[in-house]
Amino acid sequence: MRAQVGIVGAGPAGLMLSHLLHRAGISSIIIEARSRAYCEARIRAGLIEQWAADMLVETGVGARMKRESMVHDGIYIGFNGALHRIDFKKLVGKRVTIYGQQEVVKDLIAKRIADGGQILFDCSDVRVRGFDGKAPKITFRHGGKAEEVDCDFIGGCDGFHGVCRSSIPANAISVYEREYPFGWLGILAEAKPVADELIYAYHQRGFALFSMRSPNLVRYYLQCAPDENPDKWPDHKIWDELETRLGGTKVLSRGPIVEKIVAQMRSFVAEPMRHGRMFLAGDSAHIVPPTGAKGMNLAFADVLVLSRAIAAFYRNGATGLLDSYSDTCLRRVWKAQRFSWWMTRLMHLFPEETPFDRRRQLAELDYLASSEAAAKSLAENYVGLPID
Ligand code: RFL
Ligand code: PHB
């Protein structure tokens, strides 16, 4: 098999890269380890920054999102038993879109297939080779046969546990990492939303987040131990804990819990995001704790920059944008890292912290709730910083 770009991974990064390349007249093949059904059912992110929602619409994959998503003008911050609203529209003139990552993935897969794109699901033994030279190659097994894709470039879009980053020699990559001493217990439940916008709640028992997917499907998260066993959380205990942490002022509409997961919290950056003719994008290059809702948005930003760079190369042989790809992405990635780390530190209880730190956190929350300058800084970062 031959394509101009071989892409490993059919998550948001790989699918969007393939879609953007197709629009620029560049061929690609996506090699994915999992089945289509698995990729389309994997529940993760829920929040899309305004520029990314605009990109989905402008490039022809946003029609269902426009119909089914919810657009929010702000968020609530909860502490000391009260909610304080941060009004993005008023502060920075932008909004965010609530639409599940798995819905974006479904829409992108459908569009790639309708446009004649090639996505090979259920591949095993995936390896990337030759990216140091001019003839990179992806080898794998598919349908019981050994296969390979010859290409000019490889898009390493295979997430945090993929093969692309780990195929780069260790002495050619620097890793910056922080693990957090807690996780998130996340649930999806068939119940009515408790508020019209997301609630980020600070509480002495730990952080809680209310989010939603539709008028009848809600998503909640509770700060928990990093190795928490979700089976130790019967449904009634989860609802009681959420009600407590959301400040006791809200009576939650309860309903069947259809999913329970424990998510790890990690900050991670691998630099540079390029090795020869292989370009890392999305979670394969960086992970943020979900408190800032940035992961999928960063994946989209990377592949937008990458698709422009590859398009410039095929237009006139220009390599400038390929050469600056890593630096361009990392400047924005590090700002998103800073924001995600700051939101995480602000909202969570850290075991090593003292009563002094709790007072400091409450003062910072009070500052956010009472100062337009502080609220504006949060708003500017939350809705998404500019791409270039
Ligand atoms: P993905 O989605 O992990 O996709 C990688 C794909 O590569 C495949 N793969 C391989 N394929 C072939 N060969 C191999 N050897 C392979 N190894 C792996 C995988 O099967 C998969 O299909 O990475 P990508 O595309 O970079 O996308 C990143 C996002 O998925 C991630 O950043 C977000 O989900 C993070 N995130 C959030 N991001 C947001 O922008 N807004 C949010 O509100 C938000 N909330 C969240 C989140 C992540 C969470 N969890 C579970 C970690 C909330 C949570 C709880
Ligand atoms: C979600 O809806 O899953 C979600 C929303 C905001 C976050 C994290 C997750 O910060």
Describe the structure.
The chain has 2 domains: 222 residues, 3-Layer(bba) Sandwich (FAD/NAD(P)-binding domain), CATH 3.50.50.60; 121 residues, D-Amino Acid Oxidase, Chain A, domain 2. It has 11 helices and 20 strands. An 8-stranded mixed β-sheet has the order 6-5-14-15-16-13-17-20. α1 packs parallel to α8 and α10 packs across α11. The model has no long low-confidence stretch (mean pLDDT 96). The structure holds 8-demethyl-8-dimethylamino-flavin-adenine-dinucleotide and P-hydroxybenzoic acid. The site of P-hydroxybenzoic acid (PHB) has 9 residues, from loops. The site of 8-demethyl-8-dimethylamino-flavin-adenine-dinucleotide has 37 residues, from α1, β13 and α8.
Distance between the termini: 35 Å
Overall tally of domains? 2
| Strand elements, count | 20
Strand content: 25-35%
Rg, nearest Å: 21 Å
Extract low-pLDDT stretches: none
The third-level CATH topology of the largest domain is FAD/NAD(P)-binding domain
- Please tell me the overall pLDDT: 96
State the CATH class of the largest domain. Answer: Alpha Beta
Task: Give a quick account of the main beta sheet: strands, pairing sense, barrel closure.
Answer: 8 strands, mixed
CATH homology group of the largest domain: FAD/NAD(P)-binding domain
CATH architecture of the largest domain: 3-Layer(bba) Sandwich
Number of helices: 11
Counting helices, strands and paired strands, the structural category is alpha+beta
